[in-house]
Specification:
The chain is built from ten helices and no strands. It is mainly α. The longest helix has about 30 residues. The chain starts with 10 loop residues before the first helix and ends in a 31-residue tail after the last helix.
């Protein structure tokens, strides 16, 4: 069965996605690279990050529209993916680290591409937060992480529909389940100060290597037990239900006729046939 034609990334899309990646990394790691005074003065700037995130989403939408990958039909499929991801987040709300919504984000990013995958992840997380009341200073960071997971899924190598595809996606689901926790802890860890266990806290102005070692201990002691079940659950969902969901999304993409121009031509003329012969001899044949 043929797959939908993939529209290649244009240079505006590439620049936009690179900017998204750079800003996302800086949003989590800036306390490691600035002075101690600056880190203390700007520890509560999450609202500004949310505003920057909205600007990023607008830029990604503009780039996708310019590239021809985001139209009314794409938005419809994007809405389905975001709603499904948000609804799956309601099922667990992160209990014991189990968050099956990332399974949907990964599949959507794989089928719809990196730009739409970023939008899908961000909007799915936002939808889930609205449904569960999980709105707070952590929300923009969660949206960046979920969007990054969808973006990365769209950049994975391999031919769509290959037998190895679900194994690649399962490995990606396992890895991103861990990375989600690695990055999410950074939104608060540099600012908990003396509340961190001994030898696991952020030291403003200390060398990067020292703070990195402290964070590794903090992550292993507090977050790994939650992140590993998340990765394992989403990897299992990809292996079990991934092929079926991939077919559903790809069938929807094909029926939406992404990138296929409408060509009008002359109507086909009906085939003329000769009328049947008329029997003039009567019933007896005479």
């Amino acid at each position: 069965m043929s797959e939908r034609r993939v529209v290649p990334l244009t240079w505006p899309s590439r620049i936009t996605l690179i900017a998204v990646a750079v800003i996302s990394v800086l949003a989590f790691t800036w306390p490691f690279i600035v002075s101690a005074q600056f880190a203390k003065a700007h520890g509560n700037d999450a609202p500004w990050l949310f505003a920057a995130l909205l600007a990023l989403l607008a830029l990604v939408c503009l780039a996708e529209v310019t590239a021809g990958r985001l139209d009314a039909k794409t938005i419809a499929i994007l809405g389905v993916a975001a709603a499904a991801g948000g609804a799956m987040r309601v099922l667990s709300v992160g209990t014991a680290g189990l968050e099956p919504m990332f399974f949907v984000v990964i599949i959507a990013g794989r089928v719809l591409g990196p730009g739409v995958g970023f939008l899908s992840g961000s909007l799915a997380l936002l939808t889930g937060a609205m449904l569960t009341g999980g709105v707070g200073p952590w929300l923009p960071f969660q949206m960046l992480c979920a969007g990054g997971i969808g973006l990365g899924a769209g950049l994975l190598p391999g031919r769509p529909g290959a037998r190895s595809e679900r194994w690649v996606l399962a490995g990606y689901a396992l890895g991103t389940g861990l990375l989600f926790g690695v990055f999410m802890n950074l939104w608060f860890w540099p600012f908990i100060g003396a509340n961190a266990p001994s030898g696991m806290g952020f030291v403003p102005g200390a060398p990067f290597e020292e703070n990195l070692a402290h964070y590794a201990l903090f992550y292993a002691a507090t977050s790994l037990g939650w992140d590993l079940p998340r990765g394992v659950l989403n990897a299992l969902l990809v292996l079990i239900a991934g092929p079926a969901l991939l077919r559903v999304f790809r069938r929807g993409a094909r029926r939406a006729a992404f990138g296929v121009p409408v060509v009008f031509g002359p109507a086909a003329r009906p085939v003329e046939t000769a009328p049947p012969p008329v029997d003039t001899k009567g019933p007896g044949g005479r």
